Amino acid sequence: MGAMPESDIPEHVPPERVVEFDFYNDARIQKDIHDGLIALRSEAPGLFWTPFNGGHWVVLDTSAISTVLRTPKVFSSRQLQIPPRQNAPVMIPESLDPPEHLLYRRLMMSWFEPRQIAHLKSRVDHWTKHFVANVKDKGGCEFVEAVASRIPVTVFMEFVGFPLDRHEDFRSLIDGMFRSSSPEESQTYAMKIMGELQTLISARMDKREDDLLSRLIDADFEGRKLTFEELMSIGFLLFLAGLDTVTNAMSFGTRHLARYPDFQTQLRAHPERCAEAAEELLRRYTFPNLPRQVAKDTELDGVALKAGEMVLCVIAMAGLDESLNPNATDVRLDREKRNHFAFGYGGHTCLGRHLAKMELEAFYRHWLAEIPPFRIDSSKPPSGVRGGSVMGLSSLHLTWS
């Protein structure tokens, strides 16, 4: 189950709402994250209190999750760390509530809308072909390291303006931060990332390039330029979000293809449906968990929540909700409607979702065109998993003839 619980149960928490769950290291998710979450949902109420990680609420019920995510006046984004850390880096616009959040979001949206990223399609295709070609003739690979951590990370680094020759260093920092087992370790990685960003932003302030960092430096924001502190804050969010999320989506999706040869065959026969497959796999294998902090005393699902308490929204449960997605554990291209929160919900819906979909569609199309039927390599260690705010696979060994 992980470390022993660290907090007493608050008096206002009903005993029947207490469930031990450590979203970083829980035994339920160590073998398979999503199977573990389904098991948790079968034994826990839709809203419960866990004494792990300083004590906090966990929301599994889709309706309650949507209430939390669309009510920022009550459930604030100002604190996104569990356990909460007062010295955690601010991530603009993710760490802000209205009205400040919308001002910065409008600025960022101008560079992430479909027409603004259309020019990246050729670069996405280029890097996808490049990294698929690297493993094509090897008969197998450790997919996370060789492919999933390469394609989206390289595309995003190029787009934002991070130096491509630092790929290994940056990926290591991201993985280290998300794998941190203590607030102190997480803070150490955060400070290292901030140091890298300070160097990068300073270099762009001295010399502009054709990248997002340069555009942010020159942007007009409410009649002024962004401050260095604001650039650092935005950069920190870009660093975390851009260098890890699509890697995880790609890994979960490819693991499904390796496990289910019939679905793999179906998609090979209909490559024009790769965009639908990407959406369906995101629904089935949603991987972020979204923390919020209670801004004022409130009630949710008939339970009292107190100001200052932390709430963790397990948004994977929306895609696995049978009332929204019948036969939710099945991955089906003929699903009439796909309901999920893979890109968040409400005002904080992921800005990079259009780029993510572009990358995933291109990957499945090129991978299935170049790699023969593949499967899990049973001779290698099983896939490791990572809990936390962004859940993922640490490895995925594949083989093909």
Structure commentary:
This protein is α+β, with helices and mostly antiparallel strands and 401 residues long. The chain has one domain (15-400): Cytochrome p450 (Orthogonal Bundle). 47% of the residues lie in helices and 10% in strands. The protein has 17 helices and twelve strands. It has helices at 28-31, 33-43, 62-69, 100-112, 114-117, 121-136, 143-148, 151-160, 167-179, 183-206, 212-218, 228-242, 245-259, 261-269, 274-284, 316-319, 353-370; strands at 47-50, 56-59, 75-76, 140-142, 290-294, 298-300, 303-305, 310-313, 374-376, 385-386, 392-393, 397-400. Helix 6 (121-136) runs antiparallel to helix 8 (151-160) and helix 10 packs across helix 12.
Layout of strands and helices, then pairs:
Elements: H1 28-31, H2 33-43, E1 47-50, E2 56-59, H3 62-69, E3 75-76, H4 100-112, H5 114-117, H6 121-136, E4 140-142, H7 143-148, H8 151-160, H9 167-179, H10 183-206, H11 212-218, H12 228-242, H13 245-259, H14 261-269, H15 274-284, E5 290-294, E6 298-300, E7 303-305, E8 310-313, H16 316-319, H17 353-370, E9 374-376, E10 385-386, E11 392-393, E12 397-400
Helix pairs in contact: 6-8, 6-17, 9-10, 10-12, 13-17, 15-17
